[in-house]
Amino acid sequence: MSHIASLIPSQPPDSALALQPIGGATQANRWRTEAMRSHATPRLLFIARGQGRIIIQGLTHGYFANNLIYIPARTMYGFEAGPTVFGHLLTLPRAMASEWPSEAVHLRLRDVMAQKEFLTLFDGLERELSSDRQHARRAAHYQTGLLAVFFARQIDNQRNTGPDVDRRNSSAARLVAAYTDLIERHFPTDKGIADYAATLGVTATHLTRCCRQTSGQSALTLLSDRRHYEACRMLRETRAPIADVAQVAGYGSAAYFSRVFQARAGQTPSAFRKSVPEQRRAGKH
């Protein structure tokens, strides 16, 4: 396992406050949003327009305009970002994580005044992040702190209401959430669905049934999706040999990885890597 850890590229941007637009992903880049992934630090997803679905810890939610979705560190998720969707993904520094919830939260801002208040705070954050003025980064961190306060107040206003509360607390949702947590810890290994099910004290059939119930996907699909994202990320953002990518992403061998990857992506790992300009492959996330 130590060898695998040494192959995984460092991810310094995860420690920095950053904002990136999302939506309208091309077919070639849909893996960046739709494939299951997680991050070392939290994320806040703001949907400005459009609608789609997001899967967090194996539970599917529908999202619409004026939705805020908070995703804690090391939480597996993936979402649709079709041509009608536009929004932003905010990377929250590790040092600020304690100011945000310890679990995933999906807020639907239906009140017009709440929407205006959020947009005012968000516009201020975006302005400071794009500014070259003195102390802009410091101002951006303060703006993010105000966003955290706004988010906490909205949670208090919406706490224990809506259909998502019962869905999250169902036995199936709890089991699938535990399964996705295990995937995050063990996907680089050769553990199969039966191994995960045994760890959770259920049968593989029951685990798959619960995954389909909460996310519409099988247990195997969720695991394969997480491995595929890691493989894509390493191919696009590092110069690691194909055999090392296969190992880090949890495939048994480079040959098996190449077959599975080509079947899913429509091209070999080498061709996928060559489709991105060399200067963008910096060896880090």
TrEMBL record:
It comes from the Bacteria. PROSITE patterns: HTH_ARAC_FAMILY_2. Pfam families: HTH_18. Residues 177-275 form the HTH araC/xylS-type domain. Keywords: DNA-binding, Transcription, Transcription regulation. This is AraC family transcriptional regulator.
